[in-house]
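Justification of resources, computational component.

The compute hours requested in this renewal are based largely on the per-chain cost of generating structure records like the one below. Each record pairs the submitted sequence with a full structure-token output. That output is archived, and it is also reused by downstream analysis tasks.
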Amino acid sequence: MSNAWDTKDGRRRVRRDPPTLEEAVAAAQGLSDDVEDQVEIVASLMEVPQDEARAAVLRMGQRKEVNRVMVASRVGSSRAVVVERLTPRRAVASRRFAGH
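The structure output for this chain reads:
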């Protein structure tokens, strides 16, 4: 599919935003527990030198908020399930002016 196409409601385009370095590190941490593998993954995803990727991986460290839970399947074998708990976004309080 091309980046732009016409629909009955008008022209549509696909927005392509490259991932941030932090997103690449998070993806690499999800794929591998080995730091050197994470550095290689980040370097290839972001097309940055391995020194820059290594600095980002070490700066972000290992994810500590991920819990591992064992769940039994129907046939009795167990498998690992990763559960992530993200902190909720805090809403910005809007000011209301008197009389509005």
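The beta strands are 4-7, 10-13, 66-72, 78-84. The chain has three helices and four strands.
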